[in-house]
Design brief:
The complex is a heterodimer of chains A (about 475) and B (about 130). Chain A is mainly β. Helices cover about 0% and strands about 40% of the residues of chain A. Chain A folds into three domains: about 150 residues, no CATH class; about 170 residues, Immunoglobulin-like, CATH 2.60.40.2950; about 60 residues, Immunoglobulins (Immunoglobulin-like), CATH 2.60.40.10. The longest helix of chain B is centred in the first third of the chain and has 21 residues. Classes of the chains: A mainly beta (about 475), B mainly alpha (about 130).
């Protein structure tokens, strides 16, 4: 019974997330040894997501792509990629070292295409540090620019030729935009009022090492207690490349082998197992979910107190309560007459009425929001492993938001500690309501099916709803 | 009787003066082509989409004043220098250059690489500034 938690009330009055998920899209990798490009206005999208109507700051490289190389960059509709760098702060800078890169041959002509966000026209320029001295030289390392300031959101191209004698190696490319600044005059480092900078690797005459893809799997995704969990990860890495494997999972599971096994599994071992494979740089991380179901308890009762030798014994069976399966809505436990209420968070501030995203806002026609509650936060709030049967949000002011349609809440366990991108795999729906109108104060969503939290994983909460008629209002 | 007459004319003058003042905004001329070019900056300042349309409908005088600011509180001086790119004035959100504006004289903003320059009207010539 101690595992029964029948209500988690979540205090959410401060969901001011100016630059949304992209702000923390990946752990900050700075430009070192190159200079940090500076902008006075950070982040590069405000107040809404990139390209939202009403953004008075919308100054970024929305799209950058190349053609003509052996492997090209296609990084379109990336919006503002401002990041929070430890000990530095937010910068309108993103290094796409592992996900986007160029592979070229000396003498090759590479065509670059740039596009700004809507409304605010940007100048564009591009540098490659051909001499690998950690400095973008203004005279011979500015490889292409767009003259003048093209119209906002238009696509504009320029090209450059890879020097014929360029040595084999890895080089750094910087693409920079600045509001209403003539492309060929843009400096690689100095401060501009508005804009964004992206960096990429350029591989000359070589195939990039260390960029791999990985697939985690299990031959035993759903097993009974006592059986063996078998995990595995496969990669695209060259077999000669030395790889390290780092597995983690429920119950502080850890392993450094490619294919670990866990014998004599129990239900508490259910959950998400994560593996990071690293060839030295650009590690790939994948996850796989395993469900272990305990056998039910039962009692056998003979129908008759005695039976003669050679007679037939006919017992009745009473199945006990199925234990909950962690990180799922499976295996309901007994109901609890006195649910525990726990407040998570203690913020006393609230978002302004125009500031999305919140759990109740109308911003365009539909909203899809994901929030992570870390296990550490839940534990600190007094929540322990067991059933979550409802969730509540405290609203300071509805601001006349009205009704939200098909308000749906889903959940899953995750090892992620922040939302980096939408994670829609393996979600369990716990609540839906055709029309939900938030009120001032607590808004409780009672789950149709309780969700069993394992007490270890972080919880991803996924909220979807329709906003029609759309407005720009946040409760 | 004299006092009543005075009050009567005073009332008429006040009414006429108010009526005249309230019509001032209609005398502000906005070039339709410029309105099309610069309206995004007004729109984005007021929330965009239907929020902006509602604001525009309910605040016609304010809209005209702000549109005037974004489109008429500066002009482009062509060929200010001998070489460089041509400026596209529609790309200018003049509020981003406001720090250059002077109180009583025009200020010229030269941006490297452009042969044209931005000229901001002095503050004392503005009919509105956000």
């Amino acid at each position: 019974m101690k595992n029964i938690l029948n209500k988690v009330s979540v205090l959410v009055v401060a969901l001011i997330v100016f630059s949304q998920a992209n702000l923390f899209a990946q752990p900050g990798v700075g430009p070192a040894p190159y200079c940090f490009p500076l902008y006075s206005t950070i982040p590069c999208n405000q107040p809404g997501p990139s390209n939202s109507p009403g953004n008075f700051i919308n100054d970024f490289i929305n799209s950058f792509s190349t053609t003509g190389a052996n492997v090209n960059i296609t990084n379109n509709n990336s919006g503002c990629n401002a990041q929070n760098f430890p000990a530095v702060g937010i910068r309108n800078f993103f290094y796409f070292g592992c996900s986007q890169y160029l592979v070229v041959t000396p003498g090759q002509v590479v065509n670059c295409t740039f596009q700004s966000g809507q409304t605010y026209s940007q100048g564009f320029t591009c540098f490659i540090d051909w001499d690998q001295n950690g400095v973008y030289n203004l005279t011979n390392e500015r490889v292409c620019s767009i003259p003048g300031v093209p119209a906002a959101a238009s696509f504009n191209s320029a090209n450059f030729t890879v020097p014929v004698g360029q040595a084999t190696g890895t080089y750094r490319m910087r693409v920079r935009c600045a509001y209403f600044t003539n492309g060929p005059t843009i400096d690689p480092c100095i401060n501009y009022g508005f804009g964004e900078t992206e960096e990429y690797n350029v591989y000359v005459n070589m195939t990039p090492a260390g960029i791999i893809t990985a697939t985690a799997s299990t031959s035993t995704p759903s097993i009974c207690a006592g059986q063996t969990i078998s995990l595995n990860v496969l990669t695209s890495a060259n077999p000669t490349v030395a790889l390290t494997y780092t597995w983690s999972g429920p119950g502080n599971f850890a392993s450094n082998t490619q294919s670990p096994t866990i014998t004599n599994a129990t239900a508490t071992m259910s959950g998400i197992y994560s593996v990071t494979v690293s060839p030295g740089s650009c590690p790939a991380t994948k996850t796989v979910q395993v469900t272990v179901t305990d056998y039910p308890t039962y009692t056998l009762t003979p129908l008759t107190a005695t039976v003669c030798q050679g007679g037939i014994l006919t017992p009745s069976v009473i199945l006990g309560t199925l234990p909950g399966t962690p990180c799922s809505t499976l295996g309901l436990g007994p109901t609890c007459a006195s649910p525990l209420l726990k407040d998570v968070g203690s913020s006393t501030t609230s978002n302004p009425s125009w500031q999305p995203p919140t759990v109740y806002d109308k911003y365009y026609y539909d909203t899809h929001l994901q929030i992570i509650y870390r296990a550490s936060e839940l534990l600190a709030s007094g929540v322990s492993a067991g059933y979550l049967t409802s969730m509540a949000f405290n609203v300071a002011a509805t601001n006349g938001i009205g009704s939200l349609t098909n308000y749906t809440i889903k959940m899953k366990c995750t090892t992620n500690t922040v939302v980096t991108a939408f994670d829609n795999a393996g979600l369990s729906q716990v609540f839906t309501q055709a029309n939900f109108a938030p009120v001032n104060g607590w808004n409780t969503h009672t789950f149709a099916t309780p969700y069993y939290w394992d007490g270890v994983s972080n919880i991803l909460v996924d909220i979807c709803r329709g906003n029609a008629p759309w407005q720009f209002i946040s409760a | 009787m004299k006092t009543n007459l005075k009050l009567f004319f005073l009332g008429i003058f006040i009414t006429m003066s108010f009526f005249s003042f309230s019509q001032d905004w209609s005398k502000i001329k906005i070039d339709p082509a410029k309105e099309k070019q610069f309206e995004p900056y007004v729109e984005f300042r007021h929330g965009g989409g239907s929020v902006y349309q509602t604001w525009k409908t309910n605040n016609k005088f304010q809209y005209v004043k702000e549109m005037w600011y974004y489109s008429e509180s500066f002009y482009i001086k062509r060929n200010h220098t001998t070489s460089g790119e041509t400026m596209n004035e529609a790309a200018i959100d003049i509020s981003r250059f406001e720090s250059n504006r002077k109180a009583t004289e025009e200020s010229i903003v030269v941006i490297p690489g452009f042969k044209d320059a931005i000229v901001l009207l002095p503050t004392n010539k503005l009919i509105y500034k956000p």
